[in-house]
Model the fold of this input.
Amino acid sequence: MKQFDTTIVPVWQRGYRFQYEPSQQAYIILYPEGMIKLNETASAIAQHIDGQHSVAEIITLLKQQFGDIADIDADVVDYMCVAQKENWIKLSHG
Done:
């Protein structure tokens, strides 16, 4: 796994909103140009992006929720990297 600073705190970009969409029967990221339907893993991670929890804290919360699943750390880091690259979130030191 590449080096990633898990002390950073992810926040949704302005104009992006995470919510459950009954018509999609899934969690989505809503933004001015459209929406992104998330899979179960991405939804579980995204539910903890609140501008308060660091990436390390999100990993801990997910381990408490689901148990110590193999690769959970890598899955969270991968999600954060993709979400930042796609401009869904900002990563900063709280």
Remarks:
- Strands lie at 8-12, 17-21, 26-31, 34-37, 89-93.
- DSSP finds three helices and five strands in the chain.
